[in-house]
Amino acid sequence: MEIVEKCISKGIFLHPDAKQKLEKQENPNQLIEKILETYEFKNPVLQPKHIEKYLKENPNKTHRKTKPTVEKITDDKPNQKPNQKPKQTKNPDKIAKPETENKNNSSGVETSSKDKSGEDSSVETNETGEGGSGESGVVVKRDITGRSECEGELKNFINYFNDRYERIKKEIGKRNGMRNVRPIDSLDTSKDSVSLVGIVNDVRDTSNGHKLILLEDKTGEVPALALKHRSDVYSDSEKVLQDEVIGLKGTTSDNGSDLFILDEIVWPDLPLSTGKPETKGDGYIAFISDVHFGSTTFMDSAWSRFVDWLNGEMGGPEHKKTVQKIKYLCIAGDLVEGIGVYPGQKKELRTVSITEQYKEAAEQLKKIPEHINIIISPGNHDAVRQAEPQPALDEKLQKQFDRDNITFIGNPSTIEIEGVEIIVYHGRSLDDLIAELPNCSYEKPANAMKEFVKRRHLSPIYGKKTPIAPENQDHLFVDKPDIIHCGHVHKFGIDNHKGVQLFNTGTWQKQTKFQKKKGIHPDPGRVVLYNLKNHEPKIVKFCN
Ligand code: D5M
Ligand code: FE
Ligand code: ZN
């Protein structure tokens, strides 16, 4: 039951500001139940002050969204030469105090309760894979690899868009007031409020300053108008993207034209969060992206610090305990710099052969402790087809990685690790979302990643910078993951939307010439460490 319904069932009206406040909390469903149980409402309106009062009286952190802790493991020496090992960073005192607040754990390093009780904290291995999760503990739930059906024919495009439409329509049907959706060809001149679901064929400004959305379903197309003086619906209309599936509520125009006058635009989104995953796994997943082995701007020293840290050779005792429990390392694309990705890229290659770049990657990944299961998904710099969904690296390349416990997956893929469902997506469409949406920027990539959840799609726009292969099924549909892990934009970001944790793990590459020209300052050397027991993420930085 959603929070509004929970209130209604008790005869209480939820004030919109209170609703907004609730939604900012970690577990609104649980919180609203507690508030309804705790207070007697003389006036049947639940206001923001009730929430504030409850939070003040019950400072129970499970309701609040906490900021993840940040650990720094950096070498302060500037201008370190490539390949030169950091000199004195193995001293535990070098680890900076957490940058964000975490009152419960001043060191910022998570230790399991087993450690706290002083018991043996032996190194975790990947043997927890029994029970259907395979030897590596990684279950691949959705992946195009070996399953591509795309022949580039018209029928593929039709099948692809039908599948996109049906999947998202089903989700929109679960939203308030969207149960009785009408086919577009059944619209008549009656003035009743009507709900429609369709694919956006076009969005444009009219000469009078209104916004016109051309919506198409299987039965026809209708021009829908967001009037400029209707501020709510007009500002929503500015967020409508070409090719996405949306719901519209409104009425047919009373001037005899076939215009549909909009009252509301409905995105599928997810219902309010039901909280964190209920599973209690053990250990950690480390998330990284955009390593770019082979590039002149690859940051050797930060990478070496990361590898040393994984081997327990850097950081204090707390870190050593933590890294022993890292059981998985997930890499979300651009493992190597690749070749021919951008015009003039050759000048920025330290290793000019793609095979050699993967050899280098394999050598580096071999230095990672054996018990860590590695997951590799490709990006636009990797040697696979560019159109998404991209398959995993081919077998010849896979064979270069001389270790058994690497799971090669496509981009995007959905995997499950100890009950936690993760969409691994490189994130190329972030460029398109950031270009089109007024509320998205490179500075806050996790904000743009919220749009993946809101629109239940990883690449709503078809045919801008993100090439999409028209597979018969829409592999870019977003179901209900616990985590979405991206990279690509080389900016770090972490957030949560409707219970989905969003990580963008930045890069291991310095600012490139292109980024300099565009004024983009990358966030290199960041790792998200996800605790499989309490589902909290932490950030570890290997350079400033
Ligand atoms: O992408 C890194 C980020 O920089 C991503 O937002 C695309 C953008 N980028 C980088 N170089 C270029 C060029 N030459 N043209 C257009 N966009 C670019 P990555 O996938 O690592 O290259
Ligand atoms: Fe990249
Ligand atoms: Zn990329």
From TrEMBL:
Gene Ontology CC terms, in alphabetical order: DNA polymerase complex
Gene Ontology biological process terms, A to Z: DNA catabolic process; DNA strand elongation involved in DNA replication
Alphabetized GO MF terms: DNA binding; DNA-directed DNA polymerase activity; single-stranded DNA 3'-5' DNA exonuclease activity
Subunit structure: Heterodimer of a large subunit and a small subunit.
Similarity comment text for this entry: Belongs to the DNA polymerase delta/II small subunit family.
Function of the protein: Possesses two activities: a DNA synthesis (polymerase) and an exonucleolytic activity that degrades single-stranded DNA in the 3' to 5' direction. Has a template-primer preference which is characteristic of a replicative DNA polymerase.
Name of this protein: DNA polymerase II small subunit
UniProt source species: Methanonatronarchaeum thermophilum
Organism taxonomic ancestry: Archaea, Methanobacteriati, Methanobacteriota, Methanonatronarchaeia, Methanonatronarchaeales
Gene for this chain: polB
